[in-house]
Predict the 3D structure of the following.
Amino acid sequence: MFTRTVTLTARVADAVGNTTSVSAAVRVEVPTALGWAPPASSVAALQAMLARYPRPRTVRLYSGPGAGLESWSSALLAQVPADCALHYSFKDWTAGTSAAAVRDWLSARPANRRRVVDLVTLGHEPEQQSGGDAAPAAFRQQWQELVGALAGHPRRREVWLVPVFTEYAARRQASWWADFGVVASHPGVDAVGFDIYDTGYERYRTPVERNEFALAQARRVGKPLVVPEWGIRRKPTLNDGTSYDPDGVVCAQAMRDNMAHLRAQPDVPYVEWFYRGDCDLDATLTYPSGRTYVRDAERAAFGQLTG
């Protein structure tokens, strides 16, 4: 659920020019939008996902280091349905040139997308410090420049600026807030994003355990939480080899419980399943024992959740 208060103002003028206005605060509640990131940010992968899940509420796409900004006229972005929120992540930022490029990018946003707000992320998961990630000071500077670049843009309200962090890494790094998280508090940042997995945990976490850190950080700065990558890898056994979830039934229930919890929150507008790697619900995967498996139970749960 995402709840916000909107002020509506009506102004009326009579025949001789006398005017009056009345304002009213209206509480608006919007169900949490559940979507996905396709197995690759490619036309073929996106088309395949749209065939399987034809009406996503939100889609996550990426441009890696060196790829620049994906053009709105590209074959990839042209596939995103006009009524589906695009969450677009990119890595490249160059002082002196990127500010103008991102302004031009927003100016070129297709008019048929004005019914939805798109999400924009620069340098997602900076804690990893690999694959083109900016060092902490550079990351903070780049975000200041991005926010400044779009401040005052006539179409600024059409996008949210959302820094995206790694939940399991952030909660384990004492310097995380000072290094990276502080950008979430900047004016001009619209929401706070966390990619959330059960990495490093023997069992599936409860919804509270999985989401409490991310929710606390977003609420710390008074902004909505976005979960741009969510995934639960099946855990067939515990660390000692004891059978835990060989058929994915426990994982499927964990998925349902997690979405029920997030949908019950008043400040979680977007959640996106990371349909890649061990979280690709259509792939044939391999247990550590060497036995292959498919995620039928989890795929059925996701289908139910997406409606």
